[in-house]
């Protein structure tokens, strides 16, 4: 599972969420990607209809969060970003396992069991799946290969997050669920792992997407059990321990689901980019 795609890609991604709101509803959205070593947000649009006050804050994982009160009636959130993205660092040799005593402080929380990634329940399974593989990168690849062979990816089949234990019993799930069980297996063998949500080019069917990152060889690497190659053609919007930390929106009050959600991701030609 080595990254063979181009080193740099420009992507345009948009998301439109339409709600019908029965009562004024406090909401927190997580729809703005941050610039980082692997992506540069060159241009951005963010609009509410009807417009209203927005308070933005950064959560404990560094994600940008937009706090609003959705008014009664039709309510729409529209976002669009232009981002230059790069992929994993070249894997010339397999990045090795980092001893827990040598891990950076900010990775330790990604070793612990979490709401949807019950790592403490997967010790024996993770050891069996990774037996015979070199510690580190090869172990994560073995875990991803096992998830691909064992858990059926069923896009758009579930609205609510499901835990790694339940997905292991069901044998099927959406991208988020496959990432949950892979994360739990990585943590079970002391490899920090975290969930990422965002956009992926040429995803079928098109939607927001979830994958995971594992900390090996001194840095975070991208892995995706639903795609043949992780590739650089993806925009990271939020990271966290599991789906509880990276919901694109949370509402506080009566259940409020989108009436419609439209996602589009396209690759831009360099000649068309004017920043």
Structural description of this entry:
- With about 280 residues, the protein is of the alpha+beta class.
- It has two domains: about 10-85 and about 250-270, Immunoglobulin-like, CATH 2.60.40; about 100-240, C8orf32 fold, CATH 3.10.620.30.
- It has helices at about 125-130, 135-150, 165-170, 175-190; strands at about 10-20, 25-30, 40-50, 55-60, 65-70, 75-85, 150-155, 170-175, 195-200, 210-215, 220-225, 235-240, 250, 260-265.
- The strands form four sheets. Strands 3-6-1-14 form a four-stranded antiparallel beta sheet, with no helix packed on it.
- Helix 2 packs across helix 4 (about 175-190) and helix 3 crosses helix 4.
- The longest helix has 14 residues, at about 135-150.
- The radius of gyration is 19 Å and the shape is globular.
- The two termini are about 35 Å apart.
- The model is unreliable at about 1-5 (pLDDT under 50).
List key phrases describing it.
single chain, 275 residues, alpha+beta, Immunoglobulin-like, C8orf32 fold, four-stranded antiparallel sheet, 4 helices, globular
Write a brief caption for the model:
This protein has 275 residues and is α+β, with helices and mostly antiparallel strands. The protein is built from 4 helices and 14 strands.
The tally of domains stands at 2
DSSP, total strands: 14
Structural class: alpha+beta
Number of helices, where a helix is a run of at least 4 consecutive DSSP H or I residues: 4
What is the residue-mean pLDDT, rounded to a whole number?
93
**Run of helices and strands:** EEEEEEHHEHEHEEEEEE
What does the largest sheet look like? Answer: 4 strands, antiparallel
Strand content: 35-45%
Residue share in helix: 10-25%
First-residue to last-residue Cα separation: 34 Å
Radius of gyration: 19 Å
User: What name does CATH use for the topology of the largest domain?
Assistant: C8orf32 fold
Strand order of the largest sheet: 3-6-1-14
CATH class of the largest domain: Alpha Beta
Global shape: globular
Residue ranges: pLDDT <50 for 5 or more in a row?
Answer: 1-5
- In the CATH hierarchy, the architecture of the largest domain is Roll
């Amino acid at each position: 599972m080595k990254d063979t795609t181009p080193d740099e890609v420009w992507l345009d991604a948009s998301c439109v969420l339409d709600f019908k709101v029965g009562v004024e509803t406090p909401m927190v959205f997580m729809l703005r990607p941050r610039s980082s070593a692997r992506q540069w947000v060159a241009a951005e649009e963010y609009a509410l209809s009807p417009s209203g006050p927005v308070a933005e804050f950064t959560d404990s994982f560094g994600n940008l969060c937009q706090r609003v009160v959705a008014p009664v009636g039709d309510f729409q959130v529209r976002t669009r970003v232009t981002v230059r993205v790069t992929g994993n660092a070249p894997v010339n040799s397999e990045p090795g396992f980092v001893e827990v005593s040598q891990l950076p402080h900010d990775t330790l929380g990604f070793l612990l069991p979490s709401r949807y990634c019950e790592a403490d329940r997967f010790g024996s399974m993770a050891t069996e799946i990774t037996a015979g593989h070199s510690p580190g990168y090869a172990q994560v690849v073995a875990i991803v290969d096992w998830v691909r062979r064992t858990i059926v990816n069923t896009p758009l089949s579930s609205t609510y997050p499901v835990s790694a234990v339940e997905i292991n019993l069901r044998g099927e799930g959406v991208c988020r669920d496959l990432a949950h069980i892979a994360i739990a297996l990585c943590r079970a063998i002391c490899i920090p792992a975290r969930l990422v949500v965002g956009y992926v080019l040429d995803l079928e069917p098109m939607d927001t997407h979830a994958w995971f990152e594992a900390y090996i060889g001194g840095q975070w690497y991208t892995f995706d059990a639903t795609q043949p190659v992780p590739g650089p053609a993806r925009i990271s919007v939020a990271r966290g321990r599991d789906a509880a930390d990276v919901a694109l929106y949370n509402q506080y009050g009566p259940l409020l689901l989108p009436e419609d959600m439209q996602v589009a991701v396209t690759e831009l030609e360099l000649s068309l980019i004017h920043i």
